[in-house]
Amino acid sequence: xxPFTVLHVCMGNICRSPMAERLLVLAAAQRLGxxxxxxxxxxxxxxxSAGTGGWHEGEEMNPPAARQITLRGGxxxxxxxxxxxxxxxxxxDLILTATADQSDYVHALVPGAASRTFVLGHLGRLxxxxxxxxxxxxxxxxxxxxxxxxxxxxAADRLRGETEPLPGDDLDDPWGRGDQTFQRIADxxxxxxxxxxxxxxPGAPRPA
Length: 208
Description:
Strand content: 5-15%
Number of domains: 1
CATH topology: Rossmann fold
CATH architecture: 3-Layer(aba) Sandwich
Structural class: alpha/beta
Order of helices and strands: EHEHHEHEHHH
Shape: globular
Number of helices: 7
CATH superfamily: Response regulator
């Protein structure tokens, strides 16, 4: 069974989407390590990224972006920027864009991906409203995890309806700016990704 694939999209694929790619892996690995350390995350979840432009194809991520990942306990090793393709979109179960403009780009490239595509900040707002108790059971077996993840995306899409992202849902472009800006953007990314991981791999129930 293919792992549930999350594709993160920004403009050049060296700042925002690489941070999201690796920070999702970090958050999910930390949660899985607490729930079931014997399970390999790679069998459950695949986190990848690409850019709407190909100017930086093959490059490493921007150093301030890499610093944010390593400072938080993740790894920036082995990253190489990619140009977004329709094949990547077709293979993704969830597509998270940094901005609404990039979401529009995805819709134009693969119209059928619209129901799986969200501006990251918009998904964060939707996750606060999704009734997670109505989702299929959570678990660390591949089929169980994938079934819940697919259902979560469908629930967020239904909740979204015809509503559009808000301007505040966009992630600022930190390119050419200092570490403080990259930290703020990474914090914004983490906020939504932590909620996503919590919905996919909820922690143990609190004692009554």
